Amino acid sequence: MTQPDNSHPDAGSDTVGSVHELAVLSRIFPLLPAATAATVGPGDDAAVMAAPDGRFVVTTDMMVHGPDFRFAWSTGHDLGWKAAASNLADVAAMGARPTGLVVAIAATRDTPVTLLEDIARGLRDACAELAPGCGVVGGDLSVSDTFTLAITAFGDLEGRAPVLRSGARPGDTLALCGDAGVSATGLKLLFSDAVTHDGRPDHVRAQRLRQDHPRAVGAQLAPRPPIASGVAAALAGATAMLDVSDGLALDARRIASASGVAIALNRASLGDDPDTALRGGEDHALLATFPPGRALPEGFRVIGSVTDGDGVTVDGEPVAGVLGWDPYEGWNGGTG
Ligand SMILES: [Mg+2]
C-alpha cells in the first residue's frame, strides 16, 4: 500500500481552508437531493423523517482517503456516487427502500470547494438513478489531515419483514442480481496501470485507463448496484440476502455461517472470469436465497444452491481460507 496523497488534481482557487464554513455550505445545499420522506429537511439542528412502518433500517459506511479511495483516481462526483451507492446497497440488502442519507465530511484545508460541489452532485445523481425519492437530509463538515466521508443511510421496510443473512434453508436457490468481479477487475487495472513508476496513484494514467476500460474502471470508481431489486427480492420471498462487498466466496460464506447451511456455487454461472467473481468485491450485487421453485425477480440469475452442511463449495470443491477484499490488507485473494 502506497502513502496516501491528499493533493487534488482539480485544485481551484477557493479552498475549504480559505472560505467560511457557512459559505461552503451555502454552495453545497442547493445541489443536494431532497428526500421525499423528510418532513423537516436540512437547515435545522436535525432532520425529521417519516417512518410510517414504525421501524427504520439504518446503516453507515465510511470512506477514508488512502485505503478506500484516491483523488488521483476518483473525481468528487465518483466519490459522492460510490459512497451513496455502497450505503444504498446495504439498505437494499435488507429488503428495504432507501429514504435518506446523512453525510459527514472531514476535508483537508486545501480541498477545493468545487470538489465538495462535485461530491454533492455525485450524491444527487446516485440517489436519482439508484434510489429515486431518497435524499440527503443532513450532515456535517469539518477539517482533517485525511479526507474522510462518512454516510449514514436510512430505509423503510414498508411493512415487510427484513431479509436477514440467517434465513437460508437447504433446498433454497442461490441467485445473484448485478455484476460479480467487474469492480475488482477495474481495481486491478488501476493498481497495475494507473500508478507512477514509484507506485503512487497517477491521475493522467487513470483517466486514460478509464477511457480504455470504461466498464471495469467505472464499476470500481462509481458502481451501479441494483438497489430497487432489494425490495423486489423481499417481495418475491427471499429467505436471506446481502450485498456482495468482499467477493462471492466470502459473502456466500457469511450467509452459510449465519444460516447454518452450506452453499454450493456453480462455476459455469460465474461469468468469463469466475476466480475474480469469487474473490473480487465492491460491485455490491445482491446475493439472495429463494425457496425452491420460486419465480425469481427480474435481474436475478441462479448461481448455486443451499444444502445441508457448512462452508462454500464451487463445483463441489471446498473454498478454503479468507478470499476477498480486506481494506487493511489490500488485495489478498488475487494472483498479483
Ligand atoms: Mg453490505
From TrEMBL:
Primary role: Catalyzes the ATP-dependent phosphorylation of thiamine-monophosphate (TMP) to form thiamine-pyrophosphate (TPP), the active form of vitamin B1.
Protein family (similarity comment): Belongs to the thiamine-monophosphate kinase family.
Annotated binding of substrate, by residue: D68, E282, W325
Start and end residues of each PurM-like N-terminal domain: 43-155
Sequence positions that bind Mg(2+) 2: D61, D90
Cross-referenced CDD domains: ThiL (cd02194)
UniProt cross-references to Gene3D superfamilies, sorted A to Z: PurM-like C-terminal domain, PurM-like, N-terminal domain
Binding site for Mg(2+) 3: D45, D90, D243
GO BP term, example: thiamine biosynthetic process
Molecular-function GO terms, alphabetical: ATP binding; magnesium ion binding; thiamine-phosphate kinase activity
Gene: thiL
Organism of provenance: Mycetocola zhujimingii
Binding locations of Mg(2+) 1: T60, D61, D140
Residues bound to Mg(2+) 5: D246
Residues the record lists as binding ATP: G139, D140, R165, S245
Keyword Kinase in record: yes
Protein name listed in UniProt: Thiamine-monophosphate kinase
Note: Reaction mechanism of ThiL seems to utilize a direct, inline transfer of the gamma-phosphate of ATP to TMP rather than a phosphorylated enzyme intermediate.
